[in-house]
Structure formats: structure tokens, C-alpha cells
Amino acid sequence: MTCVYNPDRALCRRAETYGPSLQHCQPLACRNVALTTSNIDAFRRWLLQMEERLDDPTIAPYLRGRLAQRRDEVAQFLADNDIPKEANGGAANDHG
Hints:
Layout: E1 2-3, E2 33-34, H1 37-54, H2 61-80
Antiparallel strand pairs: 1-2
Helix pairs in contact: 1-2
């Protein structure tokens, strides 16, 4: 993920650290995220992988629920930023 760290907006900010705290990164919610073409492609691949995994009938119910929740969060993030889920899914803002 690409971060344009601004401490006033950072969700990862901790009193004991200077700069971003990667273990506390919340890329789907933080306004410090920079959406590059590479980041968008990674989100699309992640979404596809989750959808493929959810097609597996042997996945445990708890895991299925958590994975579906995360898939929905990523899909909503893309929608909120006017990014089609597929690379050829129509016009999108130039984020790269």
C-alpha cells in the first residue's frame, strides 16, 4: 500500500511512534492511502481471490463469513472510489 503519511489523518498513528505504524495500517478506511494503478490492481486481484475462495463449498462457516465480510469491504472501497471491480469495467477516475 502506498501511504502519503499525514499524522493529522493517520488511523495508524500511535503516540509512541513517529511516522506510520504498518502493523496498525487500515488501508480501506485511512485517508492517507494513495491509489496508484499498482494498488488498484492489487485490490482487484485480492477481490478476485476472495471470490474464488468463497466458491469453495468446503470452506468453514466462520471463515466463509469473515471472508465474505472482507470481500464486501474491499468491493465497497472500490465503489466508494469510483473504481470498477474489473480493469475493463468501464471508465474510472485516473488514480495512477
